[in-house]
Amino acid sequence: MAQGGRRFRMESLSLWGSITSAVLSSSCCVVQLVLNALSVSCAGFKVLTPHKSLFWAATSLFGWIWFTKTNRSLRGRGAIVLVVACLALSEEFLEHYNKGGLESLRNVSGSPREGSHLEESKHVVAVTFKVPQMGCQGCATKIKHEVMASFPAGSDAMCIADLKSKTVTVQSKDKTLLEGARISAAISRAGYFSHIVKSVKDTREDKISKSEL
Length: 213
What we know:
Blueprint (H helix, E strand, L loop, with lengths): L1 H24 L4 H8 L14 H18 L4 H15 L1 H9 L24 E8 L6 H13 L8 E5 L4 E6 L7 H10 L5 E10 L9
Antiparallel strand pairs: 1-3, 1-4, 2-3
């Protein structure tokens, strides 16, 4: 009985240790996204980013201990490992999305997948805004959602929020969608100040690749 109790405590502690470490490794995403839903701006979790490798190591260690101690079925173990892995890698997933990846996802306005119409266009127009206060991928996601929500359903606009350069670039073959006031207002609604740093008109798509933004 006592041995079973110790085993249960070890299993519980290792599981919650793994989950906590995974959340801390991506707190600037997971926690910030929750705060975004509550209309709370950037909470400064980026200070934990330099310790990300340490949190990953802790997640792996606690996860291994839990995996070897638990009596759950292999399917149950796999499901929990998948959840913990998604939590730990959420920042990477968000970065890919914010830079224009995961194009099969629909934007918040319910329009077709981002970038789908751009593939059919010979020319696009782009405008880039500097957002100095954008501090994490959670912030970038909030800004991207606000910008995309400002466009009509079915528009071909594509938004790329780059945390490294602290810029938001919007592309479209419809020049009327890229009015500076519209995009600046959307960024302001997300809680951030911005200003235009670059405007490219009538430029071919292959010259505005994601790698150049």
